[in-house]
Write a structure and sequence with these properties.
123 residues; mainly alpha; elongated
């Protein structure tokens, strides 16, 4: 039953800590005295927080990237027009390839239907 005494001691220590932090005693949080054993002597330890500043090791700074060249509005406009023209050519090529594929597929389909039908059967 040693764990019960250790648990009760921990609860009492925690309550004492809470009371020391809040600066008031709360009757609701007081544990009832155990009816089955002697009281356990406890020592309250004060803990201080210590702030330590640690300087990171001085690593060489990475080189800065070259600044982007400034563009005039005319250069920006010309670049955008070139990109749009390139995009349109790309889309036109896709559309042309789709049309060619569709025409080739329909030609094959029509040929297959024509070959499969053959001459009409006589009754």
């Amino acid at each position: 039953m040693k764990w019960i005494r250790e648990r009760d001691a921990l609860i009492a220590q925690t309550l004492a800590f809470v009371q020391s932090v809040t600066g008031r005693k709360d009757d609701v949080l007081q544990p009832e005295a155990p009816a089955y054993g002697p009281a356990v002597a406890m020592e309250i330890v004060t803990v201080e927080a210590v702030t330590v500043e640690i300087e990171p090791p001085q690593a060489p700074l990475p080189p800065r990237p070259a600044p982007l060249p400034t563009r005039t509005s005319g250069e920006f406009r010309a670049e955008m027009q070139a990109r749009i023209a390139n995009f349109r050519k790309h889309q036109e090529r896709f559309e042309r390839e789709r049309e060619e594929y569709c025409a080739a597929t329909l030609t094959k389909l029509r040929a297959a239907i024509r070959d499969a039908s053959g001459p009409p059967a006589e009754k």
